[in-house]
Design brief:
By secondary structure, the protein is mainly beta. It contains one helix and 17 strands. The strands form three sheets. Strands 1, 12, 13, 14, 15, 16 and 17 form a seven-stranded antiparallel β-sheet that branches. The chain has a six-stranded antiparallel β-sheet with strand order 2-3-4-11-6-9, with no helix packed on it. Strands 5-10-7-8 form a four-stranded antiparallel β-sheet, with no helix packed on it. The termini are far apart.
Length: 201
C-alpha cells in the first residue's frame, strides 16, 4: 500500500542519548522504538557540536539536506560532510563526534538492523518528467530539494512538497513530474530464509 507522509504532520522526538531531537519519517515495524526497529528513516537538525547516539548492530547512512555541512569523527577518523560529499555510511556502534562547519545542518538518516535487513541509499536529480520503479520490499522516496513533485501510477496520483516522503509498493511503475528537484531513495531489503541458510553452509 502506498503511504504518503506529509512533513507538516510530523513531530520531533528526543535522540536516544538525549543530546538533540529528530523527526521520525518512517519506521518498521510501525510500532517499533529505538531498541527494536528493523529500519528507521528520520530527519535531524544538528545545532551544536556533540556526540551521536550509538546503535550496535545497526548500519547507518547520513546525507546532508541543508546547511554548510559538518565534520564527523568516526572512531577517531575525520570525515567532511558537505555539498561536494554529502553522504556517508558508517557502523551504528561507532563512536561519532559531530563538529559543525558553519551553523546548523539538517540531515537525513537511515538505519537498518544488520541481522534482519539491509538498506541502499540513492540520490537522484530530477528535471522534467521521468520514470521510477520501486524494487525493494520497502522503498521510501523523500523530496530533499524542490518545491513540489508529482507521482502518478495507473491507479493513483500523489503530490509532494519539500520534505514530504512516500512509501511505495514494490514493482509499481511511477511517472515523476518536477521542475528541478532532488529525491532521496531508501530501499530496505529483508533477508530471506535462503539467505540465512547460505550463511551457515
Amino acid at each position: 500500500m502506498t503511504v504518503l507522509i506529509p512533513f507538516a504532520g510530523l513531530s520531533p522526538v528526543p535522540w536516544k542519548n538525549g543530546g538533540g531531537s529528530t523527526i521520525e519519517i518512517a519506521i518498521g515495524p510501525p510500532d517499533a522504538g529505538f531498541d527494536d526497529f528493523d529500519w528507521r528513516v528520520s530527519l535531524a537538525t544538528i545545532s551544536e557540536d556533540g556526540a551521536f547516539s550509538q546503535f550496535p548492530g545497526v548500519d547507518r547512512t547520513l546525507a546532508l539536506v541543508d546547511g554548510h555541512g559538518l565534520t564527523l569523527q568516526i572512531d577517531g577518523e575525520p570525515t567532511l560532510i558537505s555539498d561536494a560529499e554529502p553522504v556517508i555510511a558508517f557502523d551504528g556502534a561507532s563512536e561519532v563526534q559531530a563538529r559543525l562547519n558553519r551553523g546548523p545542518t539538517l540531515d537525513f538518516n537511515v538505519m537498518s538492523r544488520s541481522e534482519r535487513c539491509w538498506h541502499q541509499f540513492g540520490r537522484r536529480r530530477l528535471s522534467g518528467d521521468s520514470t521510477f520503479v520501486a524494487r525493494a520490499e520497502v522503498t521510501v522516496l523523500f523530496l530533499a530539494e524542490g518545491d513540489s513533485l508529482q507521482l502518478a501510477s495507473d491507479d493513483e496520483r500523489i503530490g509532494l512538497v519539500r520534505y514530504d516522503a512516500v512509501i511505495l509498493d514494490q514493482g509499481t511503475v511511477w511517472s515523476l513530474e518536477a521542475g528541478q528537484a532532488t529525491i532521496f531513495i531508501v530501499d530496505v531489503h529483508y533477508y530471506s530464509e535462503d539467505d540465512d541458510e547460505a550463511m551457515y553452509d
